[in-house]
Amino acid sequence: MASTNTSRLRRFSSAATFPAALASASPALAATSALIEMESYFRVFWGLGIVAAIILILYALLRKRFSLLAASPEKQIAIVEIKPLGGRKSLCLVRVRGQEHLLGLSGDSISHLATLPPQESATFAAALASVGKDQSP
Predict the structure, then answer these.
(1) Strands 89-96 and 110-116
(2) Of 52 and 33, the one with more pLDDT
(3) What are phi and psi of 104, to 5 degrees?
(4) CA dihedral sign, ordered 86, 116, 98, 110
(5) Where are the extended beta strands (E) located within the chain?
(6) pLDDT tens figures, 56-68
(7) Is 11 exposed, middle or buried (0-12, 13-18, 19+ CB in 10 A)?
(8) Contact 103, 81 (CB under 8 A)
(9) Is residue 120 pLDDT above 70, yes or no?
(10) Which contiguous run of DSSP H or E holds residue 76?
């Protein structure tokens, strides 16, 4: 029984010094172990790259699908532009069936401010200025 314990002890002690003995005995084996280690790092980075690519693709698809400013030709209602005014208040220019409507948005209400004629070349600032001119006394 004592001989089996000593043989186990020799196996454990030789296993602990085996990699160091291999590295000093043969530079080719040390280079091979370095390549194996680099291969494992490559696999990890390759996996992280694939996960990052999947996350970016999902982000792009969700952004395109749920965007507030995206307008498709078959829809009757399109949000042209939104301008925040501060806090929870903003102005929203909406095109409904060819007509443009200027809406005032706040935290708990939506107010119709004006109906504008559709102008494809006009900017939001120009449309806002024209509403101000129409309402002045």
Answers:
(1) unpaired
(2) 52
(3) -100, 125
(4) positive
(5) 77-86, 89-96, 99-105, 110-116
(6) 999 888 877 776 5
(7) exposed
(8) no
(9) no
(10) none
